[in-house]
């Protein structure tokens, strides 16, 4: 049994069928990249796992337990989006602490975990800044810290680098990989960029039109037979 098991998932938006009976799995501590063209259903799969959109049928098991009936904030799943959507009127520290305060985590523990999360994304010293005082890359690192601070069992990254320019993209990609390995964090990384997928992943899952076409290591998928 894998750490994450999506089994027989069906999902439509009205008349638009996205998935019929798809299966997907991620192992504990693995970074799996979902690679496929725009519109093939990558974001929808993440949204189903995060509980941001309802599934029509099927199960999503994490550590053997079906999370479909579980409220989004209780799934132990955190998601980072392409657009970082920080709260503009809150400092970096307040942005990162927000989720923990909602969970009524005690203040000392919040401070400790916020400091840890900011250290992981190399933004110690940026606590008092506001989002408008940050670059795009820094903003996305705050968004990442905001997810890490909840200590998720599963991290979902939806095109987290797409809004950034090339140089920053490479740096952040390496940083995400380092953090993921350091924490041994089970991560599903969505991208339509083949180079990104090739450099960041333990395994690549190729998706097309709502179907999983192939899965394997970068070498296995892209080495000529
Ligand atoms: P990807 O992430 O691979 O670009 P998406 O999961 O965003 O693909 O989209 C899959 C399909 O579902 C597309 O046809 C898209 O237009 C459609 N879709 C996504 N979100 C919605 C929505 N909220 N309402 C209706 N259709 C949607
Ligand atoms: P992504 O591929 O990251 O989902 P999109 O630009 O496709 O980015 O979608 C952005 C937002 O618009 C999402 O909330 C998605 O659910 C919604 N969306 C996408 N396609 C459609 C659609 N055909 N009809 C309605 N909403 C959509």
UniProtKB/TrEMBL annotation:
ABC transporter domain: residues covered: 4-225
Keywords: ATP-binding, Cell inner membrane, Cell membrane, Membrane, Nucleotide-binding, Transport
Any one annotated GO CC term: ATP-binding cassette (ABC) transporter complex
Any GO MF annotation of the entry: ATP hydrolysis activity
Domain of life, source organism: Bacteria
This protein's name: ABC transporter ATP-binding protein
Portion of the full sequence shown: 1 to 225 of 335
